[in-house]
Amino acid sequence: MRVPEATSPDCKCSEGAITVEHVLMKCSKWSAEREELITPLHTTSVKEVLTSKAGGRAAIKMIQRTKILEQFKAMVEQEEGRTTKDREEEEEGSEEEIE
Ligand SMILES: [Zn+2]
Prior knowledge:
Elements: H1 20-26, H2 31-37, H3 46-51, H4 53-63, H5 69-80, H6 84-94
This protein binds zinc ion.
Zinc ion binds next to loops.
Region (Disordered): 76-99
């Protein structure tokens, strides 16, 4: 039996693999974004961030600047039980805010 390749490449900060939790909560590369978007949520739990509406939006903004967007989407859908339709609507609405 083969284990699917689900490992993430190492983050450029070399503090760990580039995962949702790493980028949102730990990575030193994104400390400015974290302070702006995640710190106001007053939680150190990546699950709490992703399962709250405000946290989800903050996380999306952060993740859009990284290369783990696809991984993040899958995780949010798992946590919130969201549909593909919801996701597409949110993407449409948030596109203007990118850059
Ligand atoms: Zn990092």
